[in-house]
């Protein structure tokens, strides 16, 4: 009779043989010298042929994992899949995969193999620009949380995932493409949710160190110190620091990133724990020339579409690299905790976050400019060339955001019912300014940080801004539901209601623009789902859920072109929220070798919000498009194996059919878009991964593919299909090897080569800005509607990183 394996385990047991003689327990396990071995005693349940569950006698399993990196060599699909019990589609990546990727990467990169997930980076690490979509829905429609804390701000959905936490400190990465859970802290989960968890501190004192070098002058150092359990207090902690330097991935320029993470954990039993988690980041990244990466530009320049390496004072070229970059300082602090008293469980996560960013871009500025609706004459632009009525300045856009809140949830155990209810509060206060600063003789800006003291001023001494507004967003969410467990937990239902109330209040400080604009939004989001364990190996699940995306604060803001006085965008407080209804039904399989799932899904969208970009000179300006109604149908599939002959393959695929239900308004006319394919929605996505790990040596490779994605609602331009390949090769230095003997003070040292874009494919990887139509089109009322070219992100090129890593 076989034991039933728990799907909640993060690693899997393997069989060991035990000989007990004279009180000595001998354990025979592959590569035991490299692994931490634990003997775990517990009861297992099994099912007889009649389907009745019984309790088996106490059994002993050996659980093996590498001490410092969490690699078990047992996780299905090389860590790309695990058994799931949620009543909705869900995929999770664990340490067996994460630890074998380059440490510089962000968490989105670890999700790129999941069914229907498309991840595109301009650089291999995702520091410069990263894009994620699931089932054709972009990341501003996807909730992002970190141990329960919302990562996307509720004001503008600003998110740089690479700057949240170092990859060495990530525990798991989970994508839930259908819908978010009722207790998810987000107001933009119309397209699903992305959950990120941190690793726990080790129970033993020690640490981890890695150092890497690679292409583009890449160097990176990481150190994590573990306190272990302090006495018998149940308290353990870690603190880590990292430092990374490299050059811009396209063209000249240097980048640097410094990061600090920490976690303190106090546990006193399974149901009670308090933790404090924090991360601090300072970074300098390249602001690549996205403003002209159109298809026409790509065919003309290709990889030569780069920032200029040199500054020419006689021409005052605005594309000089020192004028185009991003400075950022961020922190995230949260305290997810759990308390249990009898049949009552309390989960509470207070959090706070700070985000400061300054985007710079070289721009030509007139001597006569518009400050809102006021014409300002005689602007003095430092270094302006004689005989010119324009001068070079660095235009900058700053975001200064502070937010905080908490999520609280109470669950009761009442027989077969487990009702829960909770409350989420979030306060977000951000200030945004677009200004200008002077340029030195060598082409460097007076300040790359957007400091007010260095901002160009009008003749009367006031600082000159094209945007200067603040936005305060308050969010209150109430949720309640019940988990009903029947038939000895074989049949489980979960459902409830979520009510979200959002208040936005924007203040614009530019004359001639609306001084105050605000809006109140209400989201009513019911959902119901369940799953049934048919047999030991087969499970079916189904559910229906609603989702919504609140209109971001950029809808409220107006922007003026300083050289013409015309509007770049106009504020609007009458925007309807995006709303989705999704249905899913699927089947899962889990046995001693295979883990897999197959899911059918259907979506109906109303008031689909498309976030895109326009440009003011070289500076991105947020634009929003109402995409009307949309219908999507598709099938997700993924399967992976547990190890056989040290191999663990993984395959995922998705078929997606997504169409527009409306003709879209442009001015006083309508584009004939009804029945067209949705933007950002590839019909096919396929991923294949293969992991081989025998202990001393390991390798894996990832192959991802997506078919064409339309970048306009008229389907007259598209991002071509793309396949990419990544590779990892590594070796562990065992204690009984020649080198290992001299490194005996280290714990499982290893060296690893990671290669991004192995074939050096030269292509665009993602749509940066969607447009209505690329070619001029006659509207349904006879108006000639001019086209506008979409822009794209370029694929990161061939990139290799060698990393040495060890525990101690």
Helix and strand arrangement:
Elements: E1 17-21, E2 24-28, E3 36-42, E4 45-47, E5 53-55, E6 59-65, E7 91-93, H1 95-98, H2 107-110, E8 117-121, E9 130-134, E10 137-138, E11 143-146, E12 149-150, E13 170-176, E14 193-198, E15 206-214, E16 218-226, E17 235-247, E18 254-269, E19 272-286, H3 295-301, E20 325-334, E21 337-341, E22 344-366, E23 369-371, E24 374-376, E25 390-412, E26 417-437, E27 465-486, E28 491-508, E29 516-533, E30 538-549, E31 559-560, E32 567-569, E33 578-590, E34 594-606, E35 609-616, E36 619-626, E37 630-641, E38 647-660, E39 664-666, E40 669-671, E41 684-693, E42 697-706, E43 709-710, E44 718-719, E45 722-732, H4 738-742, E46 747-756, E47 764-769, E48 777-778, E49 784-785, E50 791-794, E51 799-807
Parallel strand pairs: 11-14
Antiparallel strand pairs: 1-2, 3-6, 4-5, 7-13, 8-9, 9-10, 11-12, 13-14, 15-16, 15-51, 16-17, 17-18, 18-19, 19-20, 19-21, 20-22, 21-22, 22-25, 23-24, 25-26, 26-27, 27-28, 28-29, 29-30, 30-33, 31-32, 33-34, 34-37, 35-36, 37-38, 38-41, 39-40, 41-42, 42-45, 43-44, 45-46, 46-51, 47-50, 48-49
Describe the overall structure.
The protein has 808 residues and is mainly β. It has two domains: 65 residues, no CATH class; 602 residues, Beta Barrel (Maltoporin, Chain A), CATH 2.40.170. It is 2% helix and 53% strand. It is built from four helices and 51 strands. The strands form 13 sheets. The chain has a 23-stranded antiparallel β-sheet that branches. β23 and β24 form a beta hairpin. It is globular.
